[in-house]
Design brief:
The chain is α/β, with parallel strands linked by helices and about 290 residues long. It is built from eleven helices and 14 strands. The strands form three sheets. A seven-stranded mixed sheet has the order 1-3-2-4-13-5-14, sandwiched between helices. The protein has a five-stranded mixed sheet with strand order 9-8-10-7-11, with helices on both faces. Helix 1 crosses helix 9 and helix 1 packs antiparallel against helix 10. The longest helix has 19 residues. The radius of gyration is 19 Å and the shape is globular. The two termini are about 35 Å apart.
């Protein structure tokens, strides 16, 4: 799910909003797509989501409506008001609201032949920074900083450490941020994920990567999950089956390519459980742990 460097040739998964009505049923099944770090507004995403919903409706034989948000507040308002049936979420959002909405993961995104996501912190190769400690009080830029609390947990095992000890600049204009960093202007470091890193290895973007070096990497986390709100009904299970079969349709393949992904595949439970333990530490920190 990448629409981050849309500039980077579909680098991020800009998911959107769509409506597909089945003649037999005027009450559609709703899918909400929430990716706080990605580009694109709900309105901009509408055409792609219309195609997404049509393809799923064809496979499942059910009326489907889908909508995309990259703003947490608006996404939450939609969930409370419309009561969607399924969600395709950033993993940080999934963990944050898993208990609140009784989210149950069933599928996850496969991209670049992997179902794992990792984050890397890069600096200019000529900079004096060689560790996260060296970067304290310096400026870090990234689209992923819209979910800074989760990044802080990944890199420091504390939810607010990153925010307290570094100057954070969230931006969805990743390519522009890279230009500044490679010219050693404005920013001292950037957070990229493995999907973005793969895109930067392409010849057209390699000039940026050649000027950078990594100083830290996160443990792997699951890619974006597809979750139901509570136990899925037989109809929801049909939609999940349709999602996992999208790549079998020519139009489905086209939609998946638009989203920068290969397929929706069954979740890897072990990977999910490891990442969820990290979040539980945040929910129930030991006395004196937060600094």
């Amino acid at each position: 799910m990448k629409n981050l460097l849309y500039l980077l040739a579909t680098l991020i998964f800009p998911l959107t909003s769509a409506v597909s009505q089945n003649k037999e049923n005027s009450s559609p099944f709703r899918i909400v797509i929430i990716q706080p770090s990605e580009k694109g507004s709900t309105q901009e995403a509408l055409p792609a989501m219309q195609e997404f919903a049509k393809a799923l409706s064809k496979l499942s034989q059910l009326p489907i409506q889908a909508i995309y948000f990259n703003q947490e507040k608006k996404a939450l308002q939609y969930i409370h008001k419309k009561k969607p049936h399924l969600a395709i979420l950033s993993f940080p959002f999934f963990l944050k609201y898993k208990q609140t909405f009784h989210l149950q993961p069933h599928l996850q995104v496969k991209f670049n032949q992997t179902i794992q996501k990792k984050y890397f912190i890069f600096v200019h190769k000529k900079s004096p920074f060689h560790s996260l400690s060296d970067l304290k009080n310096k400026t870090i830029v990234s689209n992923h900083l819209y979910e800074a609390e989760f990044l802080s947990l990944l890199f420091f095992s504390q939810k607010n450490y990153l925010q307290k000890h570094y100057k954070l600049k969230p931006t969805r204009r990743t390519l522009r941020a890279l230009r500044y960093l490679t010219r050693q202007k404005k920013y001292h470091a950037i957070v990229l994920d493995n999907y973005q890193l793969k895109q930067l290895q392409k010849p057209i973007f390699s000039k940026y990567l050649q000027k950078l070096r990594p100083i830290a990497s996160s443990p792997p986390i699951p890619s974006s999950p597809v979750a139901s709100f509570g136990t899925p009904t037989p109809q929801i299970q049909k939609i999940l089956l349709a999602l996992s079969s999208l790549q079998k349709l020519p139009k489905g393949k086209k939609i998946l390519r638009l989203f920068g992904i290969e397929a929706f595949v069954p979740i890897k439970k072990n990977l999910f459980s490891k990442a969820q333990k990290l979040w539980l530490v945040h929910l129930y920190p030991k006395k004196g742990e937060e600094k």
